[in-house]
Write a structure and sequence with these properties.
Layout: E1 3-8, H1 12-28, E2 33-38, H2 42-45, H3 51-54, H4 62-70, E3 75-79, E4 91-96, E5 104-107, E6 122-124, H5 128-137, E7 142-144, H6 150-159, E8 164-168, H7 169-174, E9 181-184, E10 199-204, H8 208-214, H9 220-236, E11 244-251, E12 254-262, E13 269-276, H10 281-309
Parallel strand pairs: 1-2, 1-3, 6-7, 6-8
Antiparallel strand pairs: 3-10, 4-10, 5-8, 5-9, 11-12, 12-13
Helix pairs in contact: 9-10
């Protein structure tokens, strides 16, 4: 019997994802024994500061990766969108599970859709990506920072009497909180974060046995989409705390990736698309990034960086 020590953050959603991953591994090989180890990350400890103010290089992953490199765990389960575009040279993404619907959703106690939000509505989100895209369409909406896990944000919405909050559908669904969803946001309204809806399993590069085991749960379509999106993010040199978005999917055997760079106020939104063979995923992401940077994205990101340092 092979014992696999699996590391995860301690939120309900993170534990759900870890247990789901463990169950998928056991479904492929019932002889495996899964042990879940909960590890607190920096992002879990700092809850009173906006993510954009504290940086995002491994905010929700670094401590897990340290345990992985030390050999205290055999693999780490993450939300792919939390992972930095560059990993430690000793680590690799060993598998990505079949992607959940990557769209963002609006949660509103009043049951309002995005279009139905009143003038001067107050909407909660800690994401600069979401803020910029909301502002691009509805400059009248007032946005407030809201941090914490899904349940905490729901509670804050109720306590602060917000008109709504925007979250990733995947997390809401996985926690069985679908009843709070009042609107699914189309890609035209809200392009998702890189890796949104994807559970990623990280392993040591030199652990051939674990990497071979992980191959059995690696989803082909999600694999190609993730490669394209993460290549885009790498070449943009943007983390999850800049207004950058991308989504890739297979369509009739072709890989299609849409990307976006936005100014913080949403007044400038740059969009483009690339199509090609799934095997060209890395190149498609790179080409898309270079196209948007050359179209003015580089200036936008430079201005945001300078504003953050000021």
């Amino acid at each position: 019997m092979k014992i696999i020590k699996l590391g995860t953050r301690g939120s309900k959603l993170a534990i759900w994802q870890a247990e789901y991953t463990g169950a998928e591994l056991k479904r492929q090989d019932p002889r495996l024994q899964i042990e879940v180890k909960i590890i607190r990350t920096t992002g879990d400890k700092i809850l009173d500061v906006a993510l954009s103010k504290i940086g995002d290089k491994g905010l929700f992953t670094k401590e897990l990766e340290i345990e992985l490199l030390k050999g205290n765990i055999d693999l780490a389960v993450h939300s792919l969108k939390d992972m930095p575009s560059e990993l430690d040279e000793g680590l690799t993404i060993g598998a990505v599970l079949k992607r959940e619907d990557p769209r963002d959703v609006l949660l509103s106690e009043k049951g309002l859709t995005f279009k139905e939000l009143p003038s001067d509505a107050v909407v909660g989100t800690s994401s600069l990506r979401r803020r910029a895209q909301i502002k691009a369409l509805r400059d009248d909406i007032r946005i407030v920072d809201i941090r914490g896990n899904v349940e905490t944000r729901l509670k804050k919405m109720q306590e602060q009497k917000l008109d709504g909050i925007v979250l990733a559908y995947a997390g809401v669904k996985r926690l069985g909180l679908d009843q709070y969803i009042s609107d699914f946001l189309t890609y035209e309204v809200m392009l998702p974060a890189v890796g949104q809806g994807v559970i990623a399993v990280e392993a040591r590069k030199d652990d051939d046995e674990i990497r071979e085991i992980l191959k059995s749960i690696d989803d082909r379509e999600t694999h190609y989409a993730s490669r394209a999106e993460r290549s885009f993010l790498f070449h943009i040199q943007g983390g999850c705390q800049v207004p950058v978005a991308a989504n890739a999917h297979l369509s009739n055997g072709e890989l299609v990736i849409n990307g976006l760079i936005a100014s913080l106020d949403g007044k400038t939104i740059l969009k483009d698309v690339r199509r090609g063979l799934p095997s060209e995923a890395g190149r498609l992401g790179k080409d898309l990034a270079e196209s948007l940077l050359n179209a003015g994205g580089a200036v936008i990101l430079k201005d945001i960086k300078q504003a953050g340092e000021g």
